[in-house]
């Protein structure tokens, strides 16, 4: 089922997510719905706060990046096969010199800005079967994970911009929060009441 994506300005996007257990109600269905929602909006990652749930769950599928011709064949192959669910994730380490990459977010449509992040991360998490993993990622995969991880900590990519950049996009952000935007996927805006 395709769920509405929560728009910029909703308080849930600023909450730190809580850990969940393997008994979380209908977890398998939730994960399936999140993947369907993400693909419908042509995203490469989606975090639970973006569908209104302040829990530490996000998922990633970097396949769309695999078509980038500026990447090596090896990088393309790595991106092509990368589809994962991250539950109760903790980034243990971020390493290297920060690099800029133009990021966007399904909760903040039509806004893209360069964000600086470290190129290498080590992360501990549970997969959808609640098996624990500790893994290291680099490059675009690390970046997508960092972006989604920020969501479960109540951080948006716009929070990482300079005060000048923030001022320049202030009007756009205000319009998004008011629902004054044309998008081709389901969204829920802060001033809309939740449907029961």
Please explain how this structure is put together.
The strands form three sheets. The protein has a five-stranded antiparallel sheet with strand order 2-3-4-7-8, with helices on both faces. The two termini are 16 Å apart. With 196 residues, the chain is an alpha+beta fold. It has one domain: Alpha-Beta Complex (Peptide Deformylase), CATH 3.90.45.10. It has four helices and nine strands.
Principal-axis shape equals globular
**Helix-strand makeup class:** alpha+beta
Instruction: Compute the average pLDDT.
Output: 94
Percentage beta strand? 25-35%
CATH architectural grouping: Alpha-Beta Complex
Percent range of helical residues: 25-40%
Task: Return the CATH topology.
Answer: Peptide Deformylase
**Largest β-sheet summary:** 5 strands, antiparallel
Quantity of strands, as a count = 9
The number of domains is 1
Question: What tags apply to this protein structure?
Answer:
196 residues; alpha+beta; Peptide Deformylase; 5-stranded antiparallel sheet; two-stranded parallel sheet; 4 helices
Summarize the entry for a quick read:
The chain has 196 residues and is an alpha+beta fold. It is built from 4 helices and 9 strands; from the N terminus they run βαββαβββββααβ. It has a single domain (5-188), classed as Peptide deformylase (Peptide Deformylase).
Describe how the helices and strands are arranged:
Elements: E1 5-6, H1 27-40, E2 45-47, E3 57-61, H2 73-80, E4 83-95, E5 99-105, E6 108-117, E7 120-126, E8 132-138, H3 139-152, H4 163-178, E9 187-188
Parallel strand pairs: 1-9
Antiparallel strand pairs: 2-3, 3-4, 4-7, 5-6, 7-8
